[in-house]
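Here is a protein:
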Amino acid sequence: MAIQLSSIPPDLIRSCELLTGRLQLDAVLHVLSDYPRLIADLRKANALLHDFDNESKELDLIVDRLRLIAFAINEL
């Protein structure tokens, strides 16, 4: 199946050109060929964000425990 530039909206072609520094079909093909890497990077970033969120929740629990310990020590 051949890509025809006439079937791609001109604003998308222009965006591809600006992003890649290439012209028309070459720009669009470059963006399309890079798409799988982009998706993989987004998935990796999402996983890292999820890990960070979990670590943050664990730290919040530790801080709460330490606060309770500090109050208990203060009451002695």
